[in-house]
Amino acid sequence: MKLITDGRKYTDIPVPALFIFANPHGLGSWVDSNPDVSVRSSAKAYNDALAILTEKQEKAVEQGLPTARIETIHGANHFIFLSNEAEVLRYMSAFLTNFQ
How high is the pLDDT of residue 77? Predict the structure, then answer.
């Protein structure tokens, strides 16, 4: 997102905006139940680094676009609309209710 790398390019969004982040991401049952300790350890290290980057994105959006609504779902996967469909629909419904 441009907000992070070099300034305020995408901060002039004249319409309401909803951002839904997965942070920290879920690793999935394949990793969680993997008998190989090195696999679990490597995946956790990657996930920890990803969480830091995702948090930077969240803060960049919050600071660069203060009118945005930001929601965070813990333990969701990258395809958050699939892994946490009910929560995503709930957030979208609440957000869209303001415009009826």
Answer: 84
Q: What was the pLDDT predicted at 21?
A: 95
Question: Are the C-beta atoms of residues 64 and 53 closer than 8 Å to each other?
Answer: no
Higher pLDDT, 67 or 14: 67
Q: Count CA within 13 A, CB hemisphere, residue 94.
A: 11
How many whole angstroms separate alpha carbon 61 and alpha carbon 68?
8
Pick the closest to residue 31 from 77, 70, 67, 62 (CA basis). Answer: 77
R_g (Cα) of the chain, nearest Å? 16
The token duo for 62 is: 């919050």
Mean pLDDT over 46-67 rounds to: 91
Q: Are 91 and 18 a contacting pair, CB within 8 Å?
A: yes
